[in-house]
Please model this.
Amino acid sequence: MKKTVNLCVNCDARCNHCGLDRATVWYCDRCREENEPDELYDYDGEELCARCLLKQFKTVAER
Model:
C-alpha cells in the first residue's frame, strides 16, 4: 500500500520546500513493513514483500 506521510525534519526552521512534508512511502499489505515499490509484488489484489509472497505457497516438503 502507498501512503503519503510527513517526513519533515524542520531544517533549521527554514523550509526549503524539499517535498519531505508529503513523501510517498510504500508498505507491504501483510506485514506492514516499509519497502521500496520495486520490492513489492502484486498478488491477488495485495502488494506483498518477497517474504510475505513466499508464505502464500507450499514447499515441496509441505505437500
Q: What stands out?
A: The chain is about 10% helix and 30% strand.
